[in-house]
């Protein structure tokens, strides 16, 4: 288990992290989220042992993270970190050797992953000759070459089309099923909802939202109703608890305070004819994120 306990870090007078705590168990995919400058990169560096926290500690299976355990960690950075003059094979040999892998194991694992990511023909190609999307594939392959116990993914889907996002998604889920602990960070909230059961949202280095995603959505009482049909939007807007009605191309989105308003809206909707759809949905993580961050900025 990865355990982050009350870590704080300052750069001069700037407080980058303020008493951050969370745990990630084997098989869990954990979302560490926040706007730019929220403290995610500092948290990653402390977790990997590249920075020392001013206070608090990070342990992996009860042991402080140092060079004796970093071979069991994989990290995909947001920025490209490939050596572009090397071939894909040379790149994998370089990273694999740094992780203490034998040459035979590196080649075997590389070939397996190149096949899985549908790019076996790039084995002897130089990194600089590949498209951005295929460079991202190679960067991901080097991050998981050592079958890491702990994998940190910072914007892993940058530059990928939907087909390749699905390839990455399957591999990440497979790794979690095999027991890896995965920390996932992205600005795309819909991607978080594909994977993560637990999240922490950082703002100015402090956790402002944390817990199981299902619990967070339940506590965030606002909901959305989607309706298809000819409805009287003015009457619906006047219902106590209705926050707004948005007209879309072929349906209406009605935002409400909480589930208690649903029956009031339905009572008005059923007066209309030709209603083809009436669905109540939980808010998206993106709505909750924007709302929570916005509230904090306003304080």
- Give the strand order, joined by hyphens, for the main sheet: 6-7-8-3-9-10
How many strands? Answer: 14
Quick one: CATH superfamily of the largest domain?
Answer: P-loop containing nucleotide triphosphate hydrolases
Approximately how much beta-strand content do the residues carry?
A: 25-35%
Give the terminus-to-terminus CA distance: 35 Å
Count of individual domains? 2
What is the SS-derived class? Answer: alpha/beta
Report the mean per-residue pLDDT as an integer. Answer: 90
CATH architecture of the largest domain: 3-Layer(aba) Sandwich
Shape: globular
Percent of residues in helices comes to 25-40%
CATH class of the largest domain: Alpha Beta
How is the main sheet built? 6 strands, mixed
Regions with little confidence, pLDDT below 50 for 5+ residues: 295-299
Q: What is the fold named in CATH at topology level of the largest domain?
A: Rossmann fold
């Amino acid at each position: 288990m990865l355990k982050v306990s009350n870590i704080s870090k300052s750069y001069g007078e700037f407080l980058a992290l303020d008493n951050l705590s969370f745990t990630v168990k084997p098989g869990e995919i954990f979302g560490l989220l926040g706007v730019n400058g929220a403290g995610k990169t500092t948290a990653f560096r402390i977790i990997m042992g590249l920075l020392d926290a001013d206070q608090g500690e990070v342990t992996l299976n009860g042991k402080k993270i140092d060079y004796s355990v970093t071979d069991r960690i994989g990290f995909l950075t947001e920025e490209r970190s490939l050596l572009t003059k090397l071939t894909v094979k040379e790149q994998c040999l370089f990273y694999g050797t740094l992780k203490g892998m034998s040459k035979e194991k590196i080649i075997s694992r590389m070939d397996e992953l190149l096949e899985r990511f549908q790019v076996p023909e790039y084995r002897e190609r130089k990194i600089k000759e590949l498209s951005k999307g295929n460079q991202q594939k190679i960067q991901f392959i080097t991050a998981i070459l050592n079958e890491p116990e702990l994998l940190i993914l910072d914007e892993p889907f940058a530059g990928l089309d939907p087909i390749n996002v699905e390839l990455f998604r399957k591999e990440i889920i497979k790794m979690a099923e095999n027991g890896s602990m995965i920390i996932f960070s992205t600005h795309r909230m819909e991607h978080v909802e594909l994977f993560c059961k637990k999240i922490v949202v950082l703002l100015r280095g402090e956790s402002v939202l944390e817990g199981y995603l299902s619990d967070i959505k339940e506590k965030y009482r606002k909901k959305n109703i989607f309706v298809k049909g000819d409805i009287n939007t003015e009457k619906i807007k006047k219902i106590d608890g209705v926050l707004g009605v948005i007209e879309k191309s072929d349906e209406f989105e009605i935002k409400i305070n909480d589930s208690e308003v649903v029956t009031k809206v339905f009572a008005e909707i059923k007066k209309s004819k030709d209603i083809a759809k009436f669905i109540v949905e939980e808010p998206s993580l993106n709505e909750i994120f924007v709302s929570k961050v916005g509230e904090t900025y306003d304080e």
